[in-house]
Amino acid sequence: MIGNPAVFIDSTVEDQALELRSYFKSLGAEISEEKSPKGIEDDLYKIIGVCDTCFKDGQEQDVESVLNSIVSMFVTLQIPISRAENLILNFCDQVKKTSSFNLGHVGLKVLWLLFQSLSEDCTMRYHVYFYLIQIAHDTDQIKAVFKDVDHLKQQFAACPPSNEQMQKLLRALHDVLLKSKQGELAAKVMIELLGTYTSENASQAREDAQRCIFAALADPNTFLLEPLLSLKPVKFLEGELIHDLLSIFVYEKLPAYIKFYQEHKEFVNSLGLDHNQNLKKMKLLTFMQLAETEKEMSFDLIQSELQISENEVEFRSFVQETTLCVKAFLGRRANILCHFCRECIS
């Protein structure tokens, strides 16, 4: 996570405004060096409007210092939220542009400073955090601002977002986590998202439910799929092909998937799922089922159930890869399997 907020600039807010006006003017921005006759809030509005001028050629340290100075003005002025809302959103829009100038990590630190500086019961914390997620997406730095779902809830405990806002945030988080190859966290976020729907509005979650199933099936490291079937939005999809496919990965073995694919090849491909990756995953899941139901597993049984050829290289490769997956998935039961695997490949 990003560290604690920095110490604010030790000067009056009026002096900061004049210094920033002069600085941006020197960079060619269309702004007067004189303070606004409308007051300090208008100064801040004008400064925010041109603050992206320093992104093009500015040094990282200078850009961060300038943007932090603007944050300090927000905090010092303590503008009522009814008037500060547009200022904060405009500032976040400008800071988001840092990603386009290879300054995204600076933008993350600045908005995290703003987020931490706002009172915990401030409704604008949600909006600032949403911008943080967008910058994290652009910079592949999601770990800097997101730990887990429980920590996320704690961040907004004093002023929870609306259900619609939380759904929007969780969708964005899910996309960023997938991009960052953090499938396990992404799955937890998606399950949290689907949990925000009730029996009454589960039908509205259709797209989210489909994305959840797709992400879970596509992730090569996600094997615990059964909990998805208990989610109301996923239940709403019962009878549809995507629900049938999920059920096969949960309850069936490799032959059932192969049969499904032969009958619905276009559908599987339209989802963007990789058939070969699906086969690989189903072999692992089938092997895990055998491990739970069979006291002993012969080579012939494995070869038959997993449709592995007699090619020794292929079999050894599969067993070696399976060992790690099974050990993580089955815990103590895996020790027996790992012994079996060692025997097979020794």
Structural features, described:
The protein has 346 residues and is an all-alpha fold. The protein contains 18 helices and no strands. The model is unreliable at 2-8 and 331-346 (pLDDT under 50).
Summarize this entry quickly:
Helix content is 66%, strand content 0%. The protein is mostly helical and 346 residues long. The longest helix is centred in the last third of the chain and has 19 residues, at 275-293.
List keywords for this structure.
346 residues; mainly alpha; 18 helices; 66% helix; elongated; disordered N terminus; disordered C terminus
Q: Give me the secondary-structure category.
A: mainly alpha
Report Rg. 27 Å
Choose one word for the global shape: elongated
Give the overall pLDDT as a whole number: 86
- Could you tell me the number of beta strands? 0
Quaternary state of the chains: single chain
Distance between the termini: 44 Å
| Main β-sheet description | none
Q: Give, in order, the helices and strands.
A: HHHHHHHHHHHHHHHHHH
Q: pLDDT below 50 for ≥5 consecutive residues: which ranges?
A: 2-8, 331-346
Fraction in beta strands: under 5%
The number of helices is: 18
Give the proportion of residues in helices. 55-70%
What is the topology?
Blueprint: H1 13-26, H2 40-50, H3 60-77, H4 81-96, H5 104-117, H6 124-139, H7 149-155, H8 163-179, H9 183-194, H10 206-218, H11 232-235, H12 241-251, H13 254-263, H14 265-270, H15 275-293, H16 299-306, H17 312-330, H18 333-345
